[in-house]
Amino acid sequence: MSANVGKIDRMLRAIVGLVLLALALSGTFTGTMFWVGLVVGAVALATAGMKFCPAYRLLGVNTCKL
Questions:
Q1: How does pLDDT run across 13-24, given as a tens digit for each residue?
Q2: Total structural domains in the chain?
Q3: How much is the pTM?
Q4: Are 64 and 48 in contact (CB under 8 A)?
Q5: Backbone Cα Rg of the chain
C-alpha cells in the first residue's frame, strides 16, 4: 500500500474530519446527519493518517509528490 495522498490533501482531510466529528459528537448533528458526520469524519481522519485513499487508487489519482 503506497502513499497516494499528498501533504495539503492530508491537512484538508484532517481538518474536515475533525470538524465533522466535533459537530457530530457535540450534538449539532442529529439523526442521519449524526451518523453521516461520524462516518465521513472518521474515514477522512483515517485516510489522512494512513496517507492512502482506496478511492484514489480506484480512480488512478495520486496527490503525493515523492
A1: 999 999 999 999
A2: 1
A3: 0.89
A4: no
A5: 13
Under 8 Å CB-to-CB from 62, ≥6 apart: which residues?
A: 4, 56
Do 44 and 10 meet the contact criterion of CB atoms below 8 Å apart? Answer: no
Of 9, 12, 2, 1, nearest to 63 (Cα)?
9
Helix residue ranges, H only, 1-66: 7-25, 32-50, 54-59
What is the rounded CA–CA span in Å between residue 52 and residue 49?
Answer: 8
Place of cell 472518521: 42
Range of the domain at 18: 7-59
Q: Scanning the structure block, which residue is given the C-alpha cell 451518523?
A: 35
